[in-house]
Amino acid sequence: MIKYISLLRGINVSGQKKILMADLKALYESLGYSNVIPYIQSGNVIFEHGSDDISEIKNTLEATIEKKYKFSVPVDVRTKEVFEKVYAGLPFKNVDLEQDGTKILVTFLSENPGEENIEALMAYVKPPEALIFGIKSLYLHCPGGYGKTKLSNMLIEKKLAITATTRNLKSVVKLCGLLNS
Q: Assign residue 12 a region: left if phi > 0, alpha if psi is -120 to 50, beta otherwise?
């Protein structure tokens, strides 16, 4: 069995696209996924499956969610190892998780963006903010708080012309812990 994490984009935000985590867990189990662990309402689900076809898993989840809930939800699926590599690549050092855990964010990208799209997004980075690209991810430091930056998930998607979903560092750290439990 391969351990995966799926990150659903845009559920349970401001009363939109509501999915209860217990229902989401049952949906995953109905698809034959095992050891399903949902984490908080934003749509993080750890699970195991025998297939190594990430595209098939992603497409199955998206189609099943749309069929059941009548709305579409982009789903990012990564293996445990790939998710942990994204976390290990965190470029910001000496981070105090308690103080900075919601000011440092990781955005998971559906693909690596083109150079012209990267340049378009970088124009919105205003010091002391920092944005650094990783492999199918980007790291964002918003010392003033994520709610005050122009670098929202929607802007990132628009400028990079790809699907993205963002998690704060506290969530990423917790998810890494759950992946290893």
A: left
The closest alpha carbon to 107, from 58, 159, 55, belongs to: 159
Q: How would CATH label the architecture of 89-179?
A: 2-Layer Sandwich (3.30)
State the Cα–Cα distance between residues 132 and 92, nearest whole angstrom.
9
- Which residue reads 């790291």 in tokens? 139
pLDDT in tens, 103-161: 999 999 999 999 999 999 999 999 999 999 999 999 999 999 998 999 999 999 999 99
Considering only the top CATH level, what class is 2-79? alpha beta
Q: What is the pLDDT of residues 58-93, one digit of tens each?
A: 999 999 999 999 999 999 999 999 999 999 999 998
Number of residues that this document lists for the chain: 181
